[in-house]
Amino acid sequence: MTHFARTGAKVGATWAVLAKDAAEGINAAVRVPVSTAPPLVLSSGSLEALTWLALLLMPLDHVTKHLLHASVPELFAAGRLALPLFGFVLGYNLARPGALVSGGYSRTARRLAIFGTIATIPFIALGGLGWGWWPFNIMATLLVATLCAWLIEVGGPARLVAAAAVFIVGGALVEFWWPGLAVCLMAWAHCRRPSWLRLVLWIGALASLYVINRNLWALVALPLIFPAGHVKLNVPRGRLGFYVYYPTHLAVLWGLARLL
Question: Where are the domains of the chain?
């Protein structure tokens, strides 16, 4: 190789390095900053533990309402944690990567519709509802939230308008109304793309349940949820546990109410 050839090779190599460095500098300049908001990464066992905690707390609310005539406010307060926990578990599962492609939204909506319809029978039989049927039970709340999240996830102007319509109309018909839907959707939004804004909106949605609960116990869900991401619990997953448990416990309560 001649002197000029060697010199040319060195110059070419130098320009290649400079070009690479420049490209990396350009790429670094346009990178989207990563949010410093605390992400939520839970093991399957920890998520299942939160589900069962909500399932254990939920009957406390129903027992004091239908069997104890609202005479134990502490049980009512503890039961108010159920929706925030259910809403988080729903949002976390729907926010999983690939949930839309794998049919996670449609599968969840189908199960909620089927078991929610079954639960309507004992739910109405227990009484205490407006016009004998209003509002629809918590499974309907989770169903409407799932439909809204699906429409937002698919995207497009028409579907976003449809999501708003489902939120407005559905919120008027389901248990916990619009605050309950907001809790589910903001949990989903934060799990899907963590940010401080979404976290603040999630906290605000939890606080808005005060309008219904007349207390702020819903906020206690967050100190339960975030530490769960740092603990690995070995709780077996029951795929249909929640769906079967909800109508069953309502039927048992109805039977006990008839006996007492």
Answer: 1-31, 44-259
